[in-house]
Design a protein that fits this description.
The chain is an alpha+beta fold. Helix content is about 25%, strand content about 25%. InterPro entries: DUF6215.
Length: about 220
């Protein structure tokens, strides 16, 4: 079980890297700022129904990109610069793809991601694998773990050539069981600041406790 949980946490880490990579794509797709910029919106059109029991990146984006998200972050005057959702999966050692849909909203100060992992692993007990500062944190009646993470910094050479990567800014992450009985899988909220200051846990918890109930099927999972 310990090795299985370690694999599950590795998936979460890779999902975060994927969110960052997709962020470059999202920024590239964002229209140039106008004299009176408007908050970024998720992709147009109706939010598609989940495939089976899986949420889509579009659904996660709609749940995360709230009109009051900047206020929840403590920066009420800021507007979202980019917002997008993406559907992805990661191959497991057993050869089965694990769905990892995700969404990201970026502001001037904060960037927030909301993702789901369908690895079938419980959240309870995973704090032992998430670093010395990881601690249990019940969220809305469900098992959760609060821990530190770090983004990946990617730089590109103007003259071409390979991109360089290295440690980015510190992030705080919260993983929460998809249902109250913790039967497997998680919803994850991650937060980091552009200035490199470690995010306040109170801000992360405030965002999570407001956003998670808006995820489609949240009550049904309880």
């Amino acid at each position: 079980m310990k090795s299985a949980n370690a694999w599950g946490q590795a998936l979460a880490a890779v999902a975060l890297v994927g969110a960052l990579g997709a962020g470059f794509w999202g920024l590239a797709k964002t229209p140039a700022a106008q004299s009176e910029p408007k908050p970024a919106t998720c992709s147009d059109g109706e939010t598609p129904a989940p495939k089976g029991k899986h949420l889509s990146g579009a659904q996660l984006c709609e749940a995360l990109n709230r009109s009051d998200l900047a206020a929840l972050l403590g920066t009420p005057t800021e507007i979202a610069k980019s917002a997008y959702g993406s559907d992805s999966s990661i191959g497991s050692p057993g050869g089965k793809d694990v769905a990892t849909p995700q969404a990201q909203v970026e502001f001037e100060t904060y960037t927030v991601t909301l993702s789901a992992t369908y690895d079938g692993l419980p959240v309870a007990g995973s704090e032992a694998l998430l670093g010395s500062d990881a601690r249990r944190q019940e969220v809305l009646g469900r098992p959760g773990v609060l821990y530190s993470n770090r983004t990946i910094s990617i730089s590109f050479r103007l003259e071409g050539g390979d991109a360089d990567s290295g440690p980015g800014v510190p992030a705080r992450a919260l993983t929460v069981a998809q249902d109250a009985k913790d039967r497997g899988g998680s919803l994850d909220v991650t937060l980091w600041r552009a200035d490199g200051v470690a995010p306040d846990d109170a801000v992360l918890l405030r965002v999570a406790e407001t956003v998670l109930p808006a995820v489609p099927g949240w009550k049904a999972r309880g």
